[in-house]
Amino acid sequence: xxxxxxxxxxDDRTALHEAGVAAARLAIWNASRETNRGATxxxxxxxxxxxxxxxxxxxxxxxxxxVSISHSFPFAFAAAEAAAAxxxxxxxxxxxxxxxxxxxxxxxxxxxxxxxxxxERARLRTLCWSLKESVLKxxxxxxxxxxxxxxxxxxxxxxxxxxxxxxxxxxxxxxSWRIGDDFVAAAVVIPIRSxxxxxxxxxx
Length: 204
Prior knowledge:
single chain; 6 helices; 3-stranded antiparallel beta sheet
């Protein structure tokens, strides 16, 4: 998985969209160079499928590259992966009302957050939201699957690179970043077989 951050000078919707596409092209380029050293930035394009989900195209390569794009002014963030499903999200750090955080955090996740230093809890809650959104974007379900059904406990504890969706535990690649004092970002890569298993579990 490769990621790319770009800072946008304007919070205009068009400018943020263009920054997101540029970040996606950069992430796709970096991902493609791992398997195709002849790829150039000019050969990269970003398209959307029938459902509106973006994917990357590299001129001369038949298979698309999975890509996910997120914006939170002033940042645009994208992650790309050549052979798996990928989801990415960037968020301004904020605290959530008790009603909201109790709705999207599992009891185990809440326990982990509450055990952290008080000045770290807002960051951890925002990171949990960002990771969950990344998972659901990678699966292509969005918030049709409730975020509380994504259990990050093994990742948050550092036990293993795995998480559970709808009670099904699978290995993933999960990364997170803190951007200055005010933002966090996350990206998750899910093997195609695991994505299929989770999509099937979500329909039960």
